[in-house]
Design a protein that fits this description.
Keywords: Cell membrane, G-protein coupled receptor, Membrane, Olfaction, Receptor, Sensory transduction, Transducer, Transmembrane, Transmembrane helix. Putative odorant or sperm cell receptor. This is Olfactory receptor 13G1-like. This protein has 302 residues and is mainly alpha-helical. The protein has a single domain, classed as Rhodopsin 7-helix transmembrane proteins (Rhopdopsin 7-helix transmembrane proteins). The chain contains ten helices and three strands; from the N terminus they run E-H-H-E-H-H-H-E-H-H-H-H-H. It has a three-stranded mixed sheet with strand order 2-1-3. It is globular, with a radius of gyration of 21 Å.
């Protein structure tokens, strides 16, 4: 069987229409600038504001770093492919997939860590300083980065075993596991099984942890007698709930199914949300809805 090993991939992107390309470039450029500047600002504000040196904002710094990693892995190459070269080397494609999968796994795990922090703060306020001392939340952050690194290492390692031939056209706007598996000329059952297992554990498992945390939080808040106390408790969770809903709804739709059921047009649109839109909105949601962050911003710029 004559096979030609692929040395570079062609990223299909969104459209060949010049008029649409002219609209896509400024849209994605704006998303990247908002995501990069917004998340960097979050990091700077929290680092230089001693009043924000708490577990909740420590996790928010980690989330901002994950969003910077995600957008910087995807959007610069996407902008380049819109304007000129749509090809990407085999090594560049693997590197892009590695760092994107790492950032996505870390984001899912961070949401659980943040939900646990809110659970302890609201349900066990008298024990918060003990249950969330610096050693605990730093260990949680280390676990987030380590587990997500192990996940991407396994999935990327399995992908490196596959030969790619016949076609080098990636039916997506970046290198992701499902479209790459469709290009392999070898069986991908093991890759699909491992990827699906990891996605179920990371997406569904973490989502279940978050939901359980918020069931306990809601039950605890409802026992608060004063209306002001209830509003204050819910306000500390509203931003997190909004971000989690936006991110998980798209990730679960994309990944909790076999690669054979991957759909080109629908999944590319959904992927834009968790690779570009969500990282751009996270700083706005957490800063505009958070009085502590807004006060720190005013102090920093004054």
């Amino acid at each position: 069987m004559n096979q030609t090993q692929v040395t570079e991939f062609l990223i299909l992107g969104f459209s060949e229409t010049p008029q649409l390309q002219m609209l896509l470039f400024p849209a994605f450029f704006l998303l990247y600038m908002v995501a990069l500047s917004g998340n960097l600002l979050i990091v700077v504000v929290i680092v230089f504001s001693p009043a924000l040196h708490t577990p909740m904002y420590f996790f928010l710094v980690n989330l901002a770093m994950v969003d910077i990693l995600c957008t910087s892995t995807i959007l610069p190459k996407l902008l380049g492919s819109i304007m000129a070269d749509r090809t990407i080397s085999y090594g560049g494609c693997i590197v892009q997939l590695f760092f994107f999968t790492w950032s996505m796994g870390a984001e899912l795990l961070l949401f659980s860590a943040m939900a646990y922090d809110r659970y302890v703060a609201i349900c066990w306020p008298l024990h918060y300083s003990t249950l969330m001392d610096p050693g605990v939340f730093r260990l949680l952050a280390m676990a987030v980065w380590t587990v997500s690194l192990a996940n991407t290492s396994v999935n990327t390692g399995l992908l490196l075993r596959l030969p790619f031939c016949h076609s080098n056209v990636v039916q997506h706007f970046f290198c992701e596991i499902p479209p790459l598996l469709k290009l392999s000329c070898a069986p991908t059952y093991l890759n699909e099984a491992i990827a699906l297992t990891a996605d179920i554990i990371l997406a569904v498992g973490n989502f279940s942890v978050i939901m359980l945390s918020y069931v306990c939080i809601i039950a605890s808040v409802l026992r608060i007698r004063s209306a002001a106390g209830k509003r204050r408790a819910f306000s500390t969770c509203s931003s997190h709930i909004l971000v989690v809903t936006l991110y998980y709804s798209t990730v679960i739709y994309t990944y909790i199914r076999p690669a054979s059921r991957y759909s080109l047009d629908k999944d590319k649109v959904v992927s834009v949300i968790y690779t570009s839109v969500a990282p751009s909105l996270n700083p706005l949601i957490y800063s505009l809805r958070n009085t502590d962050v807004k006060a720190a911003l005013r102090r920093l710029f004054s």
